[in-house]
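Notes, p. 3: input format for complexes.
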Amino acid sequence: MTDLMVPHEAEVVERISESATIFTLRLRFRDGSRHARYRFVPGQFNMLYLYGVGEVPISVVSDPQDDALFDHTIRAIGRVTRGLSRLQPGDRLGIRGPFGCGWPLEQAQGHDVMIVTGGLGCAPAVSVINYVMRRRQLFGELVIVQGVKHAEDLIWAQRYHRWSRMEHTQVMVAADVGTALWPWHVGPVTELFAQARINASDTVAMMCGPEGMMRVAADHMRALGIVEGSMWLSMERSMHCGVGRCGHCQIGGKFVCKDGPVFNYTQVKDLLPVRGL
Ligand SMILES: Cc1cc2nc3c(=O)[nH]c(=O)nc-3n(C[C@H](O)[C@H](O)[C@H](O)COP(=O)(O)OP(=O)(O)OC[C@H]3O[C@@H](n4cnc5c(N)ncnc54)[C@H](O)[C@@H]3O)c2cc1C
Ligand code: FES
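Output follows (277 residues plus flavin-adenine dinucleotide):
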């Protein structure tokens, strides 16, 4: 068995409740030398092993330079994630990783950045937003676009308000179904794209969310003038090994665990519309 297949024990240092079903675990490897060696880039993921229950892929959301702890923000939806939600400081779990390719953050430097997310709390996008915010001078305009089905699905509303007050940052949020006090747009999120204050031909776009949403968003971004080679997206598939051996995460000829989860749009655009992939 290679080292990549062996979980290493980590300890929960802090548990933060983000909403009724979403929580953040702040972790540290119990072996100090492993912790010191651990490096990741935003967009990569770990396999989190809850002893006696199972293992799930979860993105790393902390900043790569915060080397005291590493964080995972998790939505409790099933067997393993619900079990993880019950962990408390001092509890232990197994970690394999980091796996996969991250966001093209070096290529994005010096360019405008448009981040489009859909659905309930998009952890891979939070890591990239935090990364850009902490290195604001390295990037051009930042546009954050978040779409949800129902206004009540939006988590971290205060973060969107805070980000919207930052210089050279535009935040646009849309809900298909609004509520009386909903301060943002009601309707498809793509209706907001034309308002993006970016130089489209000099923009790097990063998306995560349901694949149907990303396909439509890519069409709208192309219409704005963003070139396909500058569009990136994070894909999700059921995963077992995390290292390209079991085939569980395959999409066409690609393995989401090792060729992704972040792909250039040109690599996957022909696969996105194929049902069953
Ligand atoms: C690369 C990658 C990164 C991820 N990062 C995160 C993250 O940062 N935070 C996070 O909360 N989740 C993340 N996920 C999703 C997470 O891995 C799944 O939610 C988890 O595997 C579900 O396991 P479970 O045992 O709790 O649920 P299960 O019991 O396996 O499933 C419960 C229900 O949820 C559905 N389901 C399972 N997986 C998904 C999924 N990926 N999307 C939508 N529905 C699903 C199942 O079909 C089933 O109906 C990521 C997935 C991938 C592939
Ligand atoms: S999870 Fe096994 S090949 Fe990707």
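The longest strand covers residues 8-17.
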